């Protein structure tokens, strides 16, 4: 190779490297990502009015959290405010729109985690707390525990000054209709040799979650859910279990999961994503895709959102769709629903 050609190749390489560096600097830096559940979400089954409603509330949730972050609020503050919007809207399987158990009850679960301190809080099987995500935060900040369940968690929340409602507050007709359909399908497919519990896992999507990065560089994650339609025997999924459905660590990422909870628990999905980043050096996107593949290989479905300390994020899922959205540092909002 002559000197002139070698010099030309060097200049070209230098230019390409400069372009890459500029692209890296100008790439979108995210401060918040949310999800509203994953499942069989097909455009052909969605009316324009319903799609508009989903996009509107997801946008409202992101705007709410972004305002908190812009004003200097913590990632925990932003997550709590954002998830309140989703819990208070009956479109999602959390709070007001929670699904029914086999006995016709609404049992709610939630968790939150601080990536800076590694503190966490969770509640499970509660029926009277208007905003379970706030109860999870109260457990984290006002007790020495990580998880509380049932009546004990409800008493704690009341003593902590949180809003308590009659269980009828959570009832919606659409969720009741889903329960009746699930019961009928279970009865039609009944096989005494099967394991106990509903096989109707396709009615579960709607769980909500949020991950955020504040101006101080701290990450946090939160998840809230009504669980699985037609669930029995006090079943609890992954959402309130730290490391399974919810996890945050400033060294790696903040993660919130949604899907068939048993598979997320078995795979410790949220922590596994963090561990892949910390110990193997994977990017948040590669780690997200890896853990979702593990879930799928085992027979489970669902998705997750994750955000790292540099503002890189992923929305990984193996279903037909996932209600999801994100907002960048400069306030640009994006909303997605379907696979493509």
TrEMBL record:
Cite the binding residues for substrate.
235-238, 258-261
- What's the protein name? Isoaspartyl peptidase
| Active-site residues per Swiss-Prot or TrEMBL entry | 207 (nucleophile)
UniProt site positions, description: Cleavage: 206-207
What is the native source organism of this protein?
Chitinophaga agrisoli
Carries keyword Plastid?
A: no
**One BP term from GO:** proteolysis
Molecular function per GO: hydrolase activity, acting on carbon-nitrogen (but not peptide) bonds, in linear amides; peptidase activity
One Pfam family this sequence matches = Asparaginase_2
Q: Which UniProt keywords apply?
A: Autocatalytic cleavage, Hydrolase, Protease, Signal
**Which branch of life, at top level?**
Bacteria
What broad taxonomic lineage does this protein's source fall under?
Bacteria, Pseudomonadati, Bacteroidota, Chitinophagia, Chitinophagales
Q: Where is the signal peptide?
A: 1-23
């Amino acid at each position: 190779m002559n000197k002139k050609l070698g010099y030309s190749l060097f200049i070209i390489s230098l230019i390409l490297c400069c372009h890459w560096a500029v692209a890296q600097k100008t790439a979108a830096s995210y401060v918040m990502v949310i999800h509203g559940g994953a499942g069989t979400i097909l455009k052909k089954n969605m009316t324009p009015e319903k799609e508009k409603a989903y996009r509107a509330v997801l946008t409202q949730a992101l705007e709410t959290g972004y305002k908190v972050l812009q004003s200097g609020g913590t990632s925990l503050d932003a997550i709590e405010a954002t998830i309140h919007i989703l819990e208070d809207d009956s479109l999602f399987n959390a709070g007001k729109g929670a699904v029914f158990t086999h006995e016709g009850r609404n049992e709610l679960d939630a968790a939150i985690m601080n990536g800076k301190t590694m503190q966490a809080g969770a509640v499970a099987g509660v029926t009277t707390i208007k905003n379970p995500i706030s109860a999870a935060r109260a457990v984290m900040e006002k007790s020495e525990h990580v998880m509380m369940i049932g009546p004990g968690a409800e008493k704690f929340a009341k003593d902590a000054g949180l809003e308590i409602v009659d269980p009828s507050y959570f009832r919606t007709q659409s969720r009741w209709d889903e329960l009746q359909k699930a019961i009928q399908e279970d009865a039609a497919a009944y096989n005494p040799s099967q394991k106990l519990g509903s096989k109707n896992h396709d009615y579960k999507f709607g769980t909500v979650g949020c991950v955020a990065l504040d101006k101080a560089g701290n990450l946090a994650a939160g998840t809230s859910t009504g669980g699985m339609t037609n669930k029995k025997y006090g079943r609890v999924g992954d959402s309130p279990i730290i490391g399974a459905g919810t996890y945050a660590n400033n060294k790696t990422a903040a993660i919130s999961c949604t899907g068939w909870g048993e598979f997320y628990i078995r795979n410790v999905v949220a922590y596994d994503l963090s561990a892949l980043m910390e110990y193997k050096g994977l990017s948040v996107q590669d780690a997200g895709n890896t853990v979702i593949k593990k879930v799928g290989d085992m027979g489970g479905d669902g998705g997750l959102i994750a955000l790292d300390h540099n503002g890189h994020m992923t929305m990984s899922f193996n279903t037909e769709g996932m209600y999801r959205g994100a907002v960048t540092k400069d306030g640009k909002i994006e909303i997605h629903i379907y696979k493509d």
